[in-house]
Amino acid sequence: MEALRIITEEHQNLWRIAATLELLANEIGEGKPIEDDFFTVLFDYLDKYVDGSHHGKEDAHFFPLLRERSPEAAAVLDRLEADHRHGTESVRELRASMARATQGDAQGRASFVAHLRSYAVLLKDHIRTEEKDVMALARKSFTEADWTHINAVFANNADPLFGEQAQAEFAQQFHRLSSLAPESVGLGASEGGQLPVAPVGQPPKPRGELLLSVQGMESCYGRIKALKGISVDVHQGELVALVGANGAGKTTFMRTLSGVQPMSAGKILFAGEDISRLRADLRVRRGICQSPEGRQVFGPLSIEDNLRLGAFTQSRATVNEDMEKVFSMFPILKEKRALPAGTLSGGQQQMLAIGRALMGRPKLLLLDEPSMGLAPLLVEEVFNVIKALKAQGMTILLVEQNASAALAIADRGYVLETGSVTLTGPGNELLQNEDVRAAYLGM
After folding, report:
1. Are strands 396-400 and 210-221 parallel, antiparallel or unpaired?
2. Are the beta carbons of 131 and 138 closer than 8 angstroms?
3. Do 364 and 397 meet the contact criterion of CB atoms below 8 Å apart?
4. Mean pLDDT for each 10-residue chunk of the chain (443 residues)?
5. Structure pTM?
6. What is d(CA 432, CA 420) in angstroms, rounded to the nearest whole number?
7. CB under 8 Å to 320, separation ≥6 — which residues?
8. Long-range pairs for 301-305 at CB < 8 Å and ≥24 separation?
9. Taking the CA atoms of the chain, what radius of gyration do you get in angstroms?
10. DSSP-based three-state secondary structure for 348
């Protein structure tokens, strides 16, 4: 059921956009300015991606087959397809409403707020209907051959509307969207950023050599054993996710791997070298760089100084070049480079923490709860950035409470419970595991 996974992942993205529209409608209703550059990019995204691609794939393949297999689906599909047909007109009305609102007319402003709220409500209702009704009917009605066909359609990287190049374009547009979004919901930059781009059309790289091997790791806080013999492998070029509830040991594992938390038993091999007894700074010099839980930026220091600290193991000749790459990805950091990091919003600080880790030119990038506490739009943006880094071939170990989002982009995953690994496997298989869905995905 790979097609349903793809649709659900897109629904999560669209739900975050709907939540963002609701938040901005409230702010505009309270008198805050209308960021017309941001809304223009947002409406372009809705036009091209939602109405031009997402809905088109469902209308051409998924819905017609469901009509054939399940007569009871007709009524709900009629309503959803009507929503799809009216989608472009709804966005056109939003554009016209914004144009009137930006002319200073109080009545036009109130009308724009109402339009935003109405669109958000309709979008959420549409998503709920697909997730609860349509997908349930598909699971009940489709044969194995049906799923093979539908999965192939949704996974077709050569599709001009939904393929690899189109997905890369949508990712760049979303990155620009989140960069321009007001600080309350996004990064608040005056210009859009540019994600690092991997060559399009190349076949997926085969899994590389074993880069990290953690064997029987144990760690204690006093007499309390927080990690109970954890073993984790990460190969070059992989994105491996560690998921679990609060208190499962995820952050303790990352701290122990980085060398800031003592390891009481076990072994850590990195690029074939036993680094179990190396100090934390020597592990950074080996290429293990971490973006920690809670960002932990140096508040009194400037943004530029925070980034330079991330590169303290690197040659001075490369620092400025690497900083420009970070600034290209996150323009807001360049705009505020001289300001204290403590003045940044939570989302801006998270991008600074990721940028600081990238300044160390990591062989292994450790990301600890990067989406924690962020606005809905920025949650999607964090995973957008992670996918772009992975596409470039970066090796990433990701710790996340947001299990569905983490496993959806992971090559492999590990499920932690009270200091022990209880499940491991490919990310998409763990997403379908009934125990994982019940415990971490609320399904």
Report:
1. unpaired
2. no
3. yes
4. 81 90 94 92 87 79 93 94 92 94 89 96 95 93 93 70 68 88 89 75 67 96 94 96 90 95 96 96 95 91 96 91 93 95 93 95 95 89 91 93 88 93 91 76 52
5. 0.85
6. 21
7. none
8. 301/340, 301/341, 302/337, 302/338, 302/339, 302/340, 302/341, 303/333, 303/336, 303/337, 303/338, 303/339, 303/340, 303/341, 303/344, 303/352, 304/337, 304/338
9. 23
10. helix
pLDDT number for residue 325: 92
Give the per-residue pLDDT at 139.
Answer: 92
Burial state string for 313-348 with b = 16 or more CB within 10 A and e = fewer than 16: eeeeeebeebbeebbebbbbbbbbeeebbeebbebb
- Quote the pLDDT of residue 204: 53
- Positive or negative, the CA dihedral 431, 435, 437, 443 is positive
Distance between CA 180 and CA 163 in Å, rounded? 26
- pLDDT score of 433: 83
pLDDT given at position 60? 87
Residue 205 has, within 13 A of its CA and on its CB side, a CA count of 18
pLDDT of residue 206: 58
In the prediction, which pLDDT does 203 show? Answer: 53
Buried b (16+ CB within 10 A) or exposed e, 56-84: ebbeebbbebbeeebeebeebbeebbebb
Could you tell me the two tokens for 50? Answer: 């939602």
Instruction: Judge contact between 178 and 351, C-beta under 8 A.
Output: no
What is the distance between the alpha carbons of residues 61 and 63, in angstroms, rounded to a whole number? 6
Helical ranges in 222-261 per DSSP H = 250-258
- Burial degree of 146 (CB within 10 A; 0-12, 13-18, 19+): middle
- Read off the tokens for 395: 């090796």
- The token pair at 405 is 């989002």
Residue with tokens 């807001």: 332
